[in-house]
Amino acid sequence: MRDLACVRAKTLLAKKAVKRGDIILTSKPFCTLLDSSLIGCYCEYCFGSARKDRILRRCRDCGRAWYCSDLCRELSQPQHQRECAVFRSLPHFTPSDYARFLARLIHKLRDGGEEIVEKIDEKRSRRFRDLESHYREVRESEEHRSYVESLLPDLRVLLSPDSLPQPRHLLTIYGKVLVNSFCLLDDRLTPIGTSIYLGASIIDHSCVANAFVAFLGNKLVVRSLVDWPDLDWSRVRISYLDAMDSRQHRQSYLYQHYFFSCDCRLCRDDARERLTSTVTCGSSVCDAAVYLDETADGGVDPCQACGCTSFRDDLRQEYRRLAALTRTHLMNLNEENPELEVWREVVASQEEVFHPLNVLRAKAVDALLTATVNCRGWHSALALAKLNHSAIRHYYGASHPTYGLFLLKLAKIELCNMAFSSALQHLQEAEKILEAGLGSNHPLVYNDLMWLLVQASEETRVQIQRSLMFGERGVQHPDQELRHDQTHHSTNRARS
């Protein structure tokens, strides 16, 4: 009888109580790929960053892959060796990342990957054959069939004729990748690649997740966001998307990428959904959110706070124009480096129309905040972060890791503005949230967050000592200190 290769996903026992922040699953990748745009920036096997005192060495044969050690080079050979031969013979061949991932996966399956079993607990396990493919939906989708056909020229180069699957089998593999793959994140939570994890594929989606996925190198870690008296895997949920979006957009995204519709508590919350499309009350003494229906037959509801029904005649037309403009820019958004002037204009145009809790307003302000931080405009960034604070908390919830990341960003901005006491308060709040979602061993927590806590604590201590020694005159307001610092640097530049 043939022995089956078996990899055990580390999980808690099914009958053991689980607390918020506890690890409920760790899994190693079944197949993985680093984005081609990041080749040379990360190790191809462990995804260690070249920024962290690691010297990456190029593959001696093809020059396309980079590794941080001889061990990673050796462990990567089952995935890389066939690609390496192709790249040596065709040095200018640049296949798409999706074609490379499919080719790696097909080779893995032909080399015995079909027999690999990842055990989740004593009762549950997963093989590649167990993954959902949604073959019928993929076959009936013109978009997906056309995309697979566009990959065939690259696949014919990466795979030998006898390795290339028949069309039906290829569509099945493509569907399993489409539905079950994870976006790999580095220690800064930046997307860097794609991977399939057999064990983690068992976890379904909810817009209100009770578990959170993080990565340590190429290892996937799932932590609980709630307390479980008795862990029930049938009720564990992670989120496949960004919760800060309208119900219509979330449902459309889920069906397009995963072929299902969500019926979670968030998707049934009509009151929350109405807040995503709101304008500011027309009364001069009220700033409440008022629902505006974007549809052709829609209108503006009366204000629930003051009863105001007086709105300008062109409000709905102006709202639809600004909403369309914002959505167009969001479709083209570079999340890591948004264009400052573009988003400054978008946010300014929304000012007199959108309510701060309007989801398009929140997304636009968040993009402008990122662009402003990238340009080191700390004073403007602080005003934007405070403006968007309530919206981020509303859409993600006060205990979600994404809100914790926002608090971490806000605290960094406050430190740059010398608002030390509020920075310390937000860092302490972020610490509790991020330790539950990412774990205390995640680099973003034990490195970035802890050093910022030390800095904020020390600066706050010095500030308190000054106030005790010299009174209020000995402690400058952050704005005064910032203006003094800017004047000091301007004087130095003029002298130089």
UniProtKB/TrEMBL annotation:
It comes from Cherax quadricarinatus. GO terms for molecular function: zinc ion binding. Residues 475-496 are annotated as: Disordered. Residues 475-488 have a biased composition (Basic and acidic residues). This is MYND-type domain-containing protein. Pfam families: zf-MYND. Keywords: Metal-binding, Zinc, Zinc-finger. It comes from the Eukaryota. InterPro entries: H3K4_H4K5_MeTrfase, SET_dom_sf, TPR-like_helical_dom_sf, Znf_MYND. GO terms for cellular component: nucleus. Gene3D superfamilies: 1.10.220.160, 6.10.140.2220, SET domain, Tetratricopeptide repeat domain. Residues 43-84 form the MYND-type domain. The lineage of its organism: Eukaryota, Metazoa, Ecdysozoa, Arthropoda, Crustacea.
